[in-house]
Write a structure and sequence with these properties.
Elements: E1 5-8, E2 23-26, E3 29-32, E4 35-37, E5 41-51, E6 59-61, E7 67-76, E8 86-88, E9 93-97, E10 100-102, E11 113-115, E12 119-123, E13 126-128, E14 131-133, E15 138-142, E16 145-146, E17 150-153, E18 157-161, E19 164-172, E20 180-184, E21 187-193, E22 200-204
Parallel strand pairs: 1-2, 2-5, 3-5, 4-6, 5-7, 6-8, 7-9, 7-10, 8-11, 9-12, 10-13, 11-14, 12-15, 13-16, 14-17, 15-18, 16-19, 17-19, 18-20, 19-21, 20-22
Length: 207
């Protein structure tokens, strides 16, 4: 992604207004703030941590038709019922690479990452907490570890390649929509496919 680059110094807070930047580079260290994403953006930060300080999701993608890339960050300090670390609400393409997403806190319990729309790809990530993919989201996890439950609901389409789910892979549809889950070479602690409202679960051999 080319465009205006905004560089944030070590330990500095992320500006509320990103000054029209399409690329944000965070120096190593902890940065205060969160991303309310309404335009295409790339955020780079090997060794950097973005801490939302308990104010909503750390990264919240709200609009349609965006391209969002995040790499090398640790996301923490979120506070939201759905997607305290990352919440994909808009129908956009979102790629996370080498990102650690730490579960936040919320009155309703919340989860570390959630998506209800859009196309979300995680590569070599670590989700420290629960993941929830629902609605019409399309999600691919490559060599990614989920330390708690992975919940797949409604019409979500989820592909797991490598990595691990250390909790339960819990699948449940509705009377009108059924999720689909494809698993290839992923270590899953436990699978529960709701017998009354099941999804389609396919297990592929590792090539």
């Amino acid at each position: 992604m080319k465009g205006t680059v905004l560089t944030v110094a070590a330990g500095a807070a992320l500006p509320v207004a990103l000054q029209g930047a399409t690329v944000v580079e965070l120096a190593p260290g902890e940065h205060a703030g969160s991303l309310f994403v309404e335009s295409s953006i790339e955020v780079r930060g090997p060794g950097a941590t973005l801490n939302a300080g308990g104010r909503g999701s750390v990264a919240h993608i709200v609009d349609d038709g965006l391209t969002v890339k995040v790499s090398g960050l640790t996301l923490r300090g979120g506070n939201a019922q759905l997607g305290a670390g990352v919440f994909v609400e808009g129908a956009s393409q979102v790629v996370l690479h080498d990102v650690v997403i730490q579960g936040g806190t919320s009155p309703g319990g919340g989860n570390a990452i959630g998506a209800i729309r859009g196309e979300l790809t995680l590569e070599r990530c670590r989700i420290e907490g629960e993941a929830l993919f629902t609605g019409i989201s399309r999600v691919t996890l490559k060599d990614t570890v989920v330390t708690a439950d992975l919940l797949v609901r409604e019409g979500a389409q989820v592909v797991l390649i490598g990595g691990a789910v250390e909790g339960s892979l819990d699948i449940r549809g509705t009377t009108t929509r059924a999720p689909t889950v494809t698993v290839q070479g992923t270590t899953v602690h436990e699978v529960h496919n709701n017998p009354d409202l099941p999804g389609t679960l396919t297990t592929l051999k590792t090539p």
